[in-house]
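Page 47, continued from p. 46.
Same chain as before, 217 aa.
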Amino acid sequence: MNGTKTGRGRRIVLWRHGQTAWNLERRFQGSTDIELTEAGRSQARRAARLLAALGPDAIIASDLQRASTTASELAVLTRLDVTHDAALRETYAGSWQGLTHEEILARYGEQYTAWKRGEPVRRGGGELETEVADRAAPVVLNHADKLPENGTLVVVSHGGTIRTTIGRLLGLDAHHWEGLGGLSNCCWSVLGEGARGWRLLEHNAGTLPEPVLGDDD
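Result:
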C-alpha cells in the first residue's frame, strides 16, 4: 500500500465538518453546499484547538463550505495553508439530496434497505460508495506520501466520504464499510502507519489520541 513506502509513524486524521442546519433536520446533504451553523463554527474552533496540538504538517479539505470553513479554524492556529480538492466532497446522491431521513424511507425504502444490506446502490441515482473511494482515497494517499517521517495529515471532509476512504485504506471489502460507525459533527478518526499498511487507531474521537498500551499482548 502507498502509505508504507517511506518512513514509519505517519498519521492521517480524518475530520468531519461541524454542524449544519440540514444535519439538525436530518436532511441528506450529499454534494449540496450547506454552510455551518453558529454551533458548527464553535465546534470547529474547539476541535481545532485540540488538533493543533498534534502539530499537523498539512491540511487538505473538501471545497464545500461546511468543510472549508471547518478547516480554516485549524489553518488559523497552525498557520498552514489548506489545499482544497473537490475529490473530497460528500457522496453525490441525486434525488436523495435535500430530503429528510423519513422522506427517503417513504420514497426510496427498497433502495435504502438494499444500501444498508451492503449492496452497491446508486442512492438517488448518484455515486456508488466505491466510486467515492476511487476519487477520495488516492488524494489522501498522495498527500500522505508527501509527509515527513512521523508527520501528520489532517483531512477535512464529510461522514460518508471519510467512511469509504477509511474502508479503502484499511483494505476492507466494500460490503463491510457500513460496519464503520458514523462520525459525529467535528469528530475525527485517526489512521496510523503500521508494518502491514494503515491501521485504525481512533474512530469518532473528540479528544486527542492516546497511546495504546498492551496492544496484541
